[in-house]
Structure formats: structure tokens, C-alpha cells
Design goal:
- This protein is an alpha/beta fold.
- It folds into 2 domains: 6-159 and 310-360, Medium-chain alcohol dehydrogenases, catalytic domain (Quinone Oxidoreductase, Chain A, domain 1), CATH 3.90.180.10; 163-306, Rossmann fold.
- Helix content is 25%, strand content 23%.
- Helix 4 links the parallel strand 8 (178-182) and strand 9.
Length: 364
């Protein structure tokens, strides 16, 4: 693999303006290869997943730490071709958030929310994964020692799979738990079902509004599914209690609810389901506001927990689950040439696909 003089990239020149309706611009460009500093590596990108977060940045007015022009993309896999000699030649997954590993937050064990963290496609100069190459610190890279899938396919581990794993750690998920996933059929939600089952949840209930996608959840992690389009919150809760009794788990306490929809109705439903000594883990993101009577937390002795990204130390364990077949990626992903990035963003934004699309570089 040759070291390029230039890095080619599909750059977000400007984001869309949701207030005026002005459409954003993404253009093919290139820039000089930045200096590779001590402890850094140059990665030739094999694939970059298209995440809901990217759509928020491009379409919905969600601000990036580094303003445009900026290349999006934070689900990256590839091969190290230069830099730190220990890493050259290794296939790697790039953590979506890379902590500084020096600050007090990092030392407390919460480095996934480090205030100095680096996130491709958000807070690292102009750099992101919709590119031919990227220069990054080597310290927290996940070395892929073995794999059963093409290297590009493993890019989605960097967020769509590790984020649910981090959420499970925050929830202290244990064998025998009853787990509820709202937004179960989305990219993160479908993996949340699989992660919960792989970690020993006795019953995993997927909730969404599409029957066909819910049927797929039953094949991958979910023990039961509920279409919330057909029921109000009281009806959903009643159905969950029935399912709990059928499986011999507590039907009115201790539920662990993972809100993965990232939409207001999903969040409102998740809040309505929170009950005695339960936990609600907020995984999905939306700019919409919701209303909740906080005193219920006191009355229920319940918890609402936010979760962000995933600690790099968990990546090898997640990769092991994928390699062991306990988490399936293939049914949920599709690869496209990176040159189709504009069309792909529109397709995903318009919900015209039920797959996590991975962009593979095809620069000439």
C-alpha cells in the first residue's frame, strides 16, 4: 500500500438549514496529507458506515464541534499503512469517540464522555471517514486479529454495535433481565436487541412501528415484539406484562428500557414504561423536547441514564461477539461506493432503506 500525497474526501461544505429549507452541499475534494505525529498512524479506509448522527449534522441543524467545511463519518475500519511502527500492517476499527486518557473524567472510568475526546467527522479538524485515508492517534484503535467478514463490514461496530454495548454496561445488564428496546428495528436498536441477548437477558422485547422489520428482530435477539403504532402506552405496558408472565420474569418491576428510536414518540413511550426500580437508558438522539414528572423517579426509585459512544476498552469484547456469531452484522448492512454518498444520505434520511449502509472508497 502506497502512502498518498493527498487525501481524497467527500466533504460537507455546508450543512442544510432546516429553518429556511436550504439544502446542504457535499463535494469531492482533496487536501495535503497531514503530518503524522508521534503515536499517530495513517489508516487506509476500507469502509465507513452512514449513521443517524451524520444525518443530524447534515440535515437537522445538529452542530458539529468543528464547523463546516468538514468531512463526516465516524464508523471506520481500515488498514494502518504508516506511522507508529507497531501498528503498521494491522487491520483496525476506529473508536467513534477516542478519549484523551489523561483527564479526571477519563481516570474516573467515564472516558467515553471525555471533554477532550476526538471524534472523526465531528471534532478532529476537517477529518472524517468519508475519505480515502485518515490520520489518527493509535492508542485506542481496536486491532482486528481475526474476522469472518470483509474488513469494510466491520466499520459499523464502531458505533452501531459498540454504542449498545456501552448502554448495556451503563444499565448493569445481567443474566435474567427483562429488556425492552424502543426503536428496535433501527440500526442501533436492532443491535441493542442482539447485544442484550448475547449478554444474557432472559427476555428481550422489541418495540417499533413496522411489522416487517419487527419480524426480523425476532430472528436476531428479540424474544417478542410489539407494534406501538397499534397501541397506546397503557396497551404496550399491558402487553409487556403478559409477555413477562409468559416467560417467568417480573411483570411490574426491574425492567431495563433502552430508548433507541431517537424520536419524540419513542422517548415518550419509554418514559411511560419506566416503573418500579427500573432503568431507562437513553441511546437515541433527537432535538425534540419531552415532558416528564420527575417525582415519578422518586416514587418508583427508578433511574434515567444517558449514554454516549463507547469506551475503547470494550471494542475487543464486541468484536469477539461478532466473530462468534452472537451478534450478526450481515443481515443488517449493505455496501455502496463512496461516490454515491449524496444519494445514500438522501435515501437513509427518507427512510427508504432498512439497512445500515457502508460506504467503500472508490476514488480513482
Amino acid at each position: 500500500m502506497s502512502i498518498p500525497d493527498k487525501i481524497k474526501t467527500w466533504q460537507m461544505v455546508k450543512p442544510s438549514d432546516p429553518k429556511t429549507g436550504e439544502k446542504g452541499v457535499i463535494e469531492l475534494t482533496e487536501y495535503d496529507l497531514p503530518e503524522i505525529g508521534p503515536g499517530e498512524v495513517l489508516i487506509e479506509i476500507a469502509g465507513c458506515g452512514v449513521c443517524h448522527t451524520d444525518l443530524g449534522y447534515f440535515y437537522d441543524g445538529v452542530p458539529t464541534v468543528v464547523p463546516a467545511p468538514l468531512t463526516l463519518g465516524h464508523e471506520i475500519s481500515g488498514t494502518v499503512i504508516a506511522g507508529d511502527a507497531e501498528w503498521v500492517g494491522r487491520e483496525v476499527i476506529v473508536p467513534a469517540v477516542m478519549p484523551c486518557n489523561q483527564c479526571d473524567i477519563c481516570k474516573s472510568g467515564r472516558g467515553n464522555r471525555c471533554l477532550s475526546q476526538k471524534m472523526p467527522g465531528n471534532s478532529i479538524g476537517i477529518y472524517g471517514g468519508y475519505s480515502s485515508h485518515i490520520v489518527l492517534p493509535a492508542e485506542d484503535l481496536c486491532h482486528i486479529k481475526e474476522r469472518n467478514l470483509p474488513l469494510s463490514n466491520l466499520s459499523v461496530i464502531a458505533d452501531a454495535v459498540t454504542t449498545p454495548y456501552q448502554a448495556a454496561m451503563r444499565a448493569d445488564l445481567k443474566e435474567g433481565d427483562l429488556v425492552i428496546v424502543t426503536g428496535a428495528s433501527g440500526g442501533v436498536g436492532s443491535n441493542m436487541c442482539q447485544v442484550a441477548k448475547a449478554l444474557g437477558a432472559k427476555v428481550v422485547i422489541g418495540i417499533d412501528i413496522d411489522d416487517e422489520r419487527l419480524k426480523r428482530n425476532l430472528e436476531y435477539g428479540a424474544d417478542a415484539v410489539i407494534n406501538s403504532r397499534e397501541l397506546d402506552a397503557k396497551g404496550v405496558k399491558g402487553r409487556i406484562k403478559e409477555i413477562a408472565k409468559e416467560h417467568g420474569v417480573p411483570s411490574n418491576w426491574g425492567w431495563k428500557i433502552f430508548e433507541c428510536s431517537g424520536v419524540k414518540p419513542g422517548q415518550e413511550l419509554a418514559l411511560a414504561l419506566l416503573s418500579f426500580v427500573g432503568k431507562l437508558i437513553v441511546v437515541g438522539y433527537t432535538m425534540a423536547k419531552t415532558e416528564y414528572m420527575l417525582s415519578k423517579l422518586m416514587a418508583f426509585d427508578a433511574e434515567i441514564i444517558g449514554t454516549w459512544g463507547c469506551l475503547p476498552k470494550y471494542y475487543p469484547a464486541v468484536l469477539d461477539l461478532v466473530n462468534a456469531g452472537k451478534i450478526q452484522l450481515a443481515p443488517f448492512i449493505e455496501t455502496r461506493p463512496m461516490s454515491t454518498v449524496v444519494e445514500v444520505l438522501e435515501e437513509v434520511h427518507d427512510r427508504r432503506t432498512d439497512k445500515r449502509i457502508i460506504l467503500e472508497p472508490d476514488f480513482s
